[in-house]
Specification:
alpha+beta; Chemotaxis protein chec; 6 helices; 8 strands; CheC; Chemotaxis protein CheC; hydrolase; CheZ_family_phosphatases
Length: 204
């Protein structure tokens, strides 16, 4: 079992490729869902201290939409996707009529649409991960949370802190009339790092 700090440049390149393919898959899938042309900027991929993630995703008091799934099968761990509130509202309003609510709370129909968007986006990354490694990758039902980023990240931070203090952050910028900011975090269990590398014939 390796500490996350042992990740070398080759492995980081592999993770970046997963991020690039996943973002492309997500843009294509969202375009189909929304029946709209979506352009994608090159994702920004960074390995960061877990404690720094919340501040990059949003301001300290800013509410965001967080989607969490558990990764299962050959690779285990967690996957999270965050959308800033204005981006989430834009995507949802492309699928369902805007609600009359003025407090920023999503209606039941909007929450259902958000979960579908979350399914598509996280599925796009899982497909990239599976396709690149030829490993079987499954996922739990997405868990949706609307809160401050630090609050959403606090639960996985406790579990993840047992293994290391760095995580992979992929920042996506999609454009569909407006700029859509999304943040993807991959948290494989330590043993899964070896499986990912081994599937590619890479040994550290």
């Amino acid at each position: 079992m390796k500490d996350l700090k042992e990740i070398n440049s080759i492995y980081f390149d592999v993770l970046k490729e997963i991020g690039n393919i996943g973002a492309g898959n997500a843009a294509t899938s969202l375009a189909r869902l929304l029946n709209s042309k979506i352009s994608m900027q090159v994702p920004k991929v960074e390995l960061l201290n877990f404690s720094d993630l919340a501040g990059i995703i949003a301001g300290e008091e800013e509410t965001v939409v967080g989607i969490l799934i558990e990764v299962t099968e050959d690779i285990t761990g967690s996957m999270m996707f965050f959308l800033q509130m204005d981006s989430a509202k834009h995507l949802v309003n492309k699928l369902v009529p805007p609600s009359d609510d003025t407090e920023g709370v999503f209606s039941e129909m909007e929450l259902s649409a958000l979960k579908e968007i979350g399914n598509i986006i996280t599925g796009a990354y899982l497909s990239a991960l599976s396709g690149l490694t030829n490993l079987k990758v499954g996922a739990s039902i997405p868990y949706l949370c609307i809160d401050m980023a630090a609050a959403i990240l606090s639960v996985p931070a406790i579990e993840f802190g047992m293994f290391g203090d760095e995580a992979l952050l992929i920042e996506n910028q999609l454009e569909d009339e407006v700029l859509i900011n999304g943040y993807f975090i991959l948290l494989p269990d330590p043993d899964s790092y070896d499986k990912i590398l081994g599937s590619l014939g890479i040994h550290i």
